[in-house]
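Incident log, support desk, overnight shift.

02:14 A customer reports that sequence design results differ from what the structure should imply. Their input is reproduced verbatim below. On-call engineer (initials T.W.) acknowledged and began investigating.
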């Protein structure tokens, strides 16, 4: 049954969790503030509809994203002063970005045999907006902007668990008055076990000398 969601409320996943933890909710609201419609929206009129994601769970269901009303209520409970009109913008963009994150993750998993045992599934997740990854920290030292959010997703592939790190970067559209928000996602296996090290090494090799598994292997970065 598809009744859960892919990013946590707090430090770990649970049966009651929904996408984006409390800190990440505030981060996303800050990033997307000012992009909502000028038409007034009352909190009582926010939608309670929830979108089913394409991200499989280990119990044969799919994770489900929060509704506008749930996202607003969770922020209000934490005294984050949410604005109801922003929910109309935050929810679809947040859901689309998470779908893109899963798509990028699956490029890494392509050709690694997950389809032989029912496909790769998301097991646990953790929002860590205040923790820079080593790569992100290094890039900031070179003068690049820091990511506005970070997620750690653990997936299972035929009994093997791999932690993925996702850095979320944002920018504005062209033109000084543009309110269009663009996103760049840096998705890669963490280097905390042999499988992650092997995958990253194969990616570098593929970037230099050609494909190891398939043409869907992520480009070297």
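02:41 Re-run completed on a clean worker. Output:
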């Amino acid at each position: 049954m598809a009744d859960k969601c892919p990013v946590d409320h707090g430090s770990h996943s649970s049966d009651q969790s929904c996408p984006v933890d409390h800190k990440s909710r505030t981060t996303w609201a800050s990033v997307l503030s000012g992009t909502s419609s000028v038409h007034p929206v009352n909190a009582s009129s926010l939608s309670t509809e929830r979108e089913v994601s394409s991200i499989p769970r280990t119990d044969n269901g799919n994770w489900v994203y929060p509704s506008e009303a749930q996202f607003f209520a969770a922020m209000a409970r934490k005294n984050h002063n949410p604005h109801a009109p922003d929910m109309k913008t935050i929810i679809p963009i947040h859901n689309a970005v998470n779908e893109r994150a899963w798509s990028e993750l699956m490029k890494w998993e392509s050709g690694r045999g997950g389809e032989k045992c029912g496909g790769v599934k998301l097991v646990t997740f953790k929002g860590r907006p205040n923790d820079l990854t080593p790569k992100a920290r290094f890039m900031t030292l070179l003068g690049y902007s820091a990511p506005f959010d970070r997620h750690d997703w653990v997936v299972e592939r035929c009994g093997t668990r791999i932690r993925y790190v996702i850095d979320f970067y944002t920018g504005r559209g062209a033109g000084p008055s543009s309110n269009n928000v663009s996103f760049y996602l840096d998705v890669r296996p963490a280097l905390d076990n042999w499988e992650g090290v092997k995958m990253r090494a194969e990616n570098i090799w593929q970037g230099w000398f050609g494909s190891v598994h398939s043409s869907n292997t992520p480009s070297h970065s």
